[in-house]
Design goal:
This protein is of the alpha/beta class and about 200 residues long. It is about 50% helix and about 15% strand. The protein has a five-stranded parallel beta sheet with strand order 2-3-1-4-5. It is globular. The relative contact order is 0.21.
Length: about 200
């Protein structure tokens, strides 16, 4: 059986990746490609705890959050109900909103990135994206979007977003020979951003 593809969306908060991943899911489904859309943190118990940490409901430090993401990611890959590896092996294309590059950038902005990469090494060895789509947006523009929300989360500050964006590019450069990363410029019109994405992903099929 032909394996499904693994397509990952990355970017700083407010870049529009949730919208773009949904649009890609609808596009591929319309072409009769079996697809499954998911995200990290997940809706599992691990993911729920992470969301509580991000909202400030549970006080913790950066290394603990980084470790929780690794646990959630392992469960995401291997759990018996809807593990990603099994889905891909059965021919389903998985579209994931965030994966290990998020950990490299977000946690790597506040602790040694090497530690984070090492902690995620088994996940990277188990399942590597066919392509990682990084939606690039100016931190000022993303923060303007985020400011419309009722409450901001742990990393949703302009200085944090600037650090995280820089760390993404550091990680891309560090792993350029091991990962396929495509930079997608965030356009004002959602359809224009999506057109860039489809041009890249069509080649996978």
């Amino acid at each position: 059986m032909k394996k499904g593809k693994f397509i990952v969306f990355e970017g700083i908060d407010g870049c529009g990746k949730s919208t773009q991943s949904k649009m890609l899911f609808e596009y591929l489904t319309s072409k009769d490609i079996p697809c499954y859309k998911t995200c990290e943190p997940t809706d599992s118990r691990f993911g729920t705890l992470i969301r509580q940490c991000l909202k400030g409901e549970v006080e913790t430090d950066e290394k603990t959050i980084a470790a929780l993401f690794v646990a959630d990611r392992f469960d995401h890959l291997y759990n018996k109900a809807d593990g990603l590896i099994e889905k891909i092996n059965s021919g389903v294309t998985v579209i994931c909103d965030r994966y290990y590059f998020s950990s490299y950038a977000y946690h790597g902005a506040f602790m040694p990135m090497e530690w984070v990469i090492d902690a995620n090494r088994l996940c990277a060895d188990a399942l590597k994206p066919d392509v990682t789509l990084f939606i690039d947006i100016e931190p000022e523009r993303s923060f303007e979007r985020l400011s419309r929300r009722n409450a901001l989360e742990r990393y949703e500050k302009i200085d944090s977003l600037e650090k995280i964006r820089k760390k993404y590019f550091e990680a891309f450069e560090l792993l350029k020979n091991k990962e396929r990363v495509e930079i997608v410029k965030s356009a004002k019109a959602k359809a224009d951003t999506q057109a860039q994405i489809r041009k890249i992903t069509d080649k996978l099929f």
